[in-house]
Amino acid sequence: MCRKVQLVPKFKEYDADGNGFITLEEASYILENPPFNFPPAKVVFLLRRFDRDGNGKLDIEEFAGFYAEAKATLVLFSQLCCYSCSGVRVFVNLN
Predict the structure, then answer these.
(1) Domains of the chain
(2) Is the pTM of this model over 0.85?
(3) Reduced to 3 states, what is the DSSP secondary structure of residue 15?
(4) Among 50, 52, 44, which Cα is nearest to 65's?
(5) What is the CA radius of gyration of the chain?
(6) How far apart are CA 37 and CA 51, in angstroms?
(7) How would you class 46 by CB atoms within 10 Å of its CB: exposed for 0-12, middle for 13-18, buried for 19 or more?
(8) Residues 9-35: pLDDT tens digits?
(9) SS3 of 12, please?
(10) Which of 6, 36, 40, 50 is the right S-S partner for 66, CB 3.0 to 4.6 Å?
């Protein structure tokens, strides 16, 4: 419950039309731009993974998992990039 309350401002920021849901278009705007820069296929994958009721959009509860997974992927990717800069070749597929 606490995590959901903390995400309310972020949810409202991304819910561009104010309908109480994050649509594919809104999710794409979030994840295809900085700091995430995910490919469109990754956005669709995450939306489908966390859209528990299958309505094609995320409510606040579904958004909590979606956003946490996106942030975790971003952190992991950032850590892998640091390793690759140190001379170790790392290949990452975000799809």
Answers:
(1) 2-85 (1.10.238.10)
(2) no
(3) coil
(4) 50
(5) 14
(6) 21
(7) buried
(8) 999 999 999 999 999 999 999 899 998
(9) helix
(10) 50
List, in order, residues 6 or more apart from 43 with CB less than 8 Å away.
Answer: 24, 27, 28, 31, 32
Residue type present at position 93: N
Tell me the per-residue pLDDT of 61-91, one tens digit each, with 9 for 90 and over: 999 999 999 999 887 766 555 444 545 555 5
Vertex 37: Cα angle to 22 and 76 (nearest 5): 100
Q: Torsions phi, psi of 21, nearest 5?
A: -140, 155
Contact yes or no for 40/32 (Cβ under 8 A): yes
d(CA 85, CA 41) in angstroms, rounded, equals 26
Residue 39 bridge partners (DSSP): none
Distance CA 17, CA 13 (A): 10
> At which residue do the structure tokens 């956005």 appear?
43
